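Thread: "does anyone have the structure for this chain?"

Original post by V.I.:
We have the sequence but no experimental structure in hand. Need at least a predicted one for the grant figures.
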Amino acid sequence: MRFAEALRASGLSAIAEVKRRSPSAGDLRPDADPGALAAAFERSGAAAVSILVDQRFGGTIDDLHAARARASLPLLAKGFFSTAEQLRELRDAGADAVLLLLRDLDEQSMAELLQTSRALGMDALVEAHDEEELQRAAELEAEVIGINARDLATFEIDRAAQLELVAKAPRDRVVVAESAIASRAHGAAAELAGADAILVGSTLMRAQDPPAKLAELISRPLVKVCGLTREEDVAVAGEAGADMAGFILAEESPRRADELLPVPETMLRVAVHVGEYDERGADLVQLYARDPRTRMRSRDAALLRDGQEVARVVDLPWEQADPEHLERASTAEGRIMLAGRLGPDNVRDAIEAVQPWAVDAASRLEAGPGIKDHDRVRAFVEAAR
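Reply from O.Q.:
Generated one for you, tokens below.
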């Protein structure tokens, strides 16, 4: 399978990267075995594997040979390439794709290398760091565009800028969010901004079990704990491994939060509104319509990013049971966040029935309205994972 084709698979794909060291962080995994890791990443669900072949990252072209000997999935060769001869050498060593940096190449050089890669039967990951480079990638008709959160001159990370660029990338290209993916929430943020895939390196190389860490990052469903009103409850949800913290801002809710509370860097902050949209301070907005007859919220909601719907929340009718709830959710299309009286005892059965993108719980995790029972929160996250 071609590199670009592998990344177009449904859901969020992952490129797992093998690198022994980083110029910014120093040694990461000096004894990394690229062949063994590539094979293990393939078993753990990677769509492709990236191999650093540059000595500044502790790599050589022999690492590409080793990975090719052990794994059948597409391999991306990463380094600083500027000649057709380099691309031929990489192809002969087993690379299916090559990294090309817009920062280092002028238009003519980039066009020539793209033409060479195509002639060699290779894809190219064309990497952009700012809006100007993104425009250049689009004009060069690059099929796969990487958006790097790391400034290669200062090594500083700017996730917000990365997500803005991901959202602006042409939707008919394969878009890869690179660098700074350390949690499922980071990957989800890139996915909802429009990324088809994430490239993860340092996080995997630092992990005690890199393949298990990869499987964790791409696993679904995501887990949302909603109706949070206290900082200590947010902290417990984050420590338990929840990916999203929900704050209900609707006046009529007994779980109404006075404000959006701080959340751990590993979580997304979701503002829950009824009838009125307000994204200030939130990563996402969960918006329920208001029924003009009853003034209560609708049964389902839209999950919005920058005002655009990115998922549907399939919920129960207000304070009512619905025996067909799971059946209705299982036939819904697109990303589905499943809500409605979920708890530690029933979430696993619900996941198996619906296969949702995310699960959302509030009332059944409480000791009282807006007050979370920490043991129930921990048990819910564990059961959902």
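V.I.: this helps a lot. The chain has a mean pLDDT of 93.
O.Q.: and The longest strand covers residues 297-305.
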